[in-house]
Specification:
Layout lengths: L1 H15 L3 H10 L4 H26 L5 H21 L14 H13 L3 H13 L3 H24 L6 H23 L7 H24 L7
Length: about 220
């Protein structure tokens, strides 16, 4: 399914911009050869996202698709809020006694467990009810996003415009989630009052998440 591949690719690229695992790849690129970092990221992503798409596809066997679509839509809104709040490294880039490749691969695999890109992969696999296109799309998206982070942040010695990228990605996630809710919830719930209330609640959550992110001293905004 081309739609599943393209959607998965775009969403993971957006989710990975400014994410903890992209920061981790950039940190490792200051220490090891960028080729080694990319191969380590690739190995970790292939395994991690294969696990994620299998879990997402398995969910469709015991949960009605209408429920999955609602859960996926809500999860995309949460991913948008997560993106606004920002991520930070918590020691994943520390030195180990392993070879550079295994250091990167293991650290990246562990950092990706429970991260929003992995959870987005689960949601996408459940929503599209397919494995290979989503797996290929999310893996390709991760490699592109982390490659951009390494090349721009390290090789060219420049910084990604984090604020613009973060807010653009977050808004796209949230709008996609709201549209998904509109498409999947029972039609009798689509009253003017409910839609207005949902919009107000979403704006309030965006504001509160932004304020929480501002209070985090490690979540600098460029």
């Amino acid at each position: 399914m081309i739609t599943a591949f393209v959607t998965s690719f775009v969403f993971v690229v957006l989710a990975e911009m400014g994410d903890k695992t992209q920061l981790l790849a950039m940190a490792f690129a200051t220490r090891y050869r960028w080729q080694t970092v990319m191969w380590g990221v690739f190995a970790a992503t292939v395994l991690n996202h294969l696990f994620a798409v299998v879990v997402g596809n398995y969910i469709t066997h015991f949960m009605p698709m209408s429920y999955i679509q609602i859960v996926a839509a809500v999860s995309f809104i949460l991913f948008g809020l997560w993106t606004i709040r920002g991520d930070e490294l918590q020691g994943e880039d520390k030195e180990t006694g392993r070879s550079p490749f295994w250091t990167v691969a293991i650290a990246f695999f562990m950092a990706e467990m429970g991260d929003k890109t992995q959870l987005a992969t689960v949601a996408l696999a459940a929503q599209f009810n397919t494995i290979i296109p989503v797996w290929l799309g999310t893996t390709t998206g991760m490699m592109l996003a982390d490659g951009i982070g390494i090349i721009i942040g390290i090789v060219l010695g420049k910084k990604i415009p984090e604020r613009a990228v973060k807010w653009s990605a977050a808004i796209i996630f949230i709008l996609f989630g709201l549209f998904g809710l509109y498409e999947s919830v029972p039609k009798y719930l689509l009253t003017a009052a409910n839609m207005a209330g949902t919009s107000i609640m979403t704006v309030l959550l965006i504001y509160l998440t932004y304020r929480l992110g501002k209070q985090n001293p490690n979540a600098d905004e460029k």
